[in-house]
């Protein structure tokens, strides 16, 4: 699954299909993907840009998505399958210069362990804090972090906004 999703063009196609109410014509799909790839409106896509994406979709990407059961291709129509709808579990879109949540939680765990050790050994200001106090601080930090993670991941899902996650600012 990660092999399929590592390709930006396939992610763009899936994003567009998730936003559609039903099957999408391959030409429409190619035009939208070309618009995102070239950072232009759908109306501004040139025939050359569209043709390049169309050929790649037809020859490579749609057959692979069809083989993995993520889409159904019927002649010129492409529709997302139920399996394709559940792809979010495989995706963690991390904007440039951002820390992936997995690394963030690793750092939070290390900090928590250091705080517990510092409180246990009565080191510095942690020596003045009770074990319960350290536990409460860590529990609050974990709860706030998890809430931010849920919000971030929900907003970064494919098909959730007009543009794919990697094209949105902020």
Integer-rounded radius of gyration:
22 Å
CATH top level label of the largest domain: Mainly Alpha
Q: Can you give the mean pLDDT? A: 87
Number of spatially distinct domains? 2
SSE order, as H and E?
Answer: HHEHHEEHHH
Termini, distance in Å? 27 Å
Please explain how this structure is put together.
Helix content is 58%, strand content 6%. The protein is mainly alpha-helical. The protein has two domains: 90 residues, Arc Repressor Mutant, subunit A, CATH 1.10.10; 55 residues. Strands 1-3-2 form a three-stranded antiparallel β-sheet. It is elongated and about 70 Å long. The mean pLDDT is 87.
Summarize the structure in short.
The chain is mostly helical. The protein has seven helices and three strands; from the N terminus they run H-H-E-H-H-E-E-H-H-H.
List keywords for this structure.
170 residues, three-stranded antiparallel sheet, 3 strands, 7 helices, Arc Repressor Mutant, subunit A
List the helices and strands and how they pair.
Elements: H1 2-5, H2 8-19, E1 24-25, H3 26-38, H4 47-67, E2 71-74, E3 77-80, H5 82-85, H6 101-120, H7 131-155
Antiparallel strand pairs: 1-3, 2-3
Helix pairs in contact: 2-3, 3-4, 6-7
